[in-house]
Amino acid sequence: MDTSIRFRWLGTAGIELVVNDQVLLIDPYFTRFPIWKLVLGRVRPNRVLISDLVQRCDHVLVTHAHFDHLMDVPDLVRNTGAVAIGSPNCCRLLTACGVPERNVREVHAGDCLGFGDYQVQVQMGEHIKLPLFAPGPLGTVLEPPLRARDYRMDFHYSFLISAGGQRLLTDTGICPEDAVAADVLFIHPGRPRPFYESLLPRVRPKVIVPYHWDDFFRPLSLPLRPFWWPTGRVFRPLQRVNLAEFRETIGRIAPGTVLLEPEAFRSYDLVELLGLS
Fold first, then answer.
1. What does pTM read for this prediction?
2. Could you read off the pLDDT of 177-195 as tens digits, one per residue?
3. In 3D, which of 15, 5, 22 has the Cα closest to residue 270?
4. DSSP string covering 7-60, please?
5. Three-state DSSP class for residue 262
């Protein structure tokens, strides 16, 4: 039987994969609280929005424990009965937010998971350095609603998903030297050119999908706009992600690769994108 694979970009780093009748989410985040709450007050998931945007889910993969990847997962799990999968910090935060232990699964780099029509390999990644959000242990007291900085990461994972003979790789912090071949690469478009020059020859993707480029402090009710990203330069240390510059970079490094800039929440047929239909 042919395998049906569809995906939606959910904004930020969120991806929904529908493999036949199974639904997998990766890093779903819809709440988008205002930026001042990074340092002041506590943050609460937008439960109405979460319920409206996702009605069905079997598994949720979480790359790391920062709020823009994990914060909405507890409500989504309660709504759908899904199993949430992530690092030890992710699992402890999920439990602290009231997710039953039966709906939480801890994984580590190197693990291989089988879920019927698709399989997942867990790979180690690394996160850019961020003030207030450096890796480390969680606080001893975690009482919801949490503060944004309570969502502290330990490990940062990348996921290789195999379904119907196709391989999809998510990059929110992949190490180029550890990358493996994949047909579809979901990738952050704000990195320096040498990163892509090292990564793409190893992955050799047929389709590249940029994601996690939008301002996740801007409500979904407003048009998406690029987020500020570190440049690594002393002067002008931040600039907005430049998708046009990313297109040019990919065109030079990997000519012939399909670059899909997806509309948020639009469903795409992966078989059609790969030219297999």
1. 0.95
2. 888 999 999 999 988 899 9
3. 5
4. EEE-STT-EEEEETTEEEEES-------GGGGTSS-----HHHHHHH----SEE
5. coil
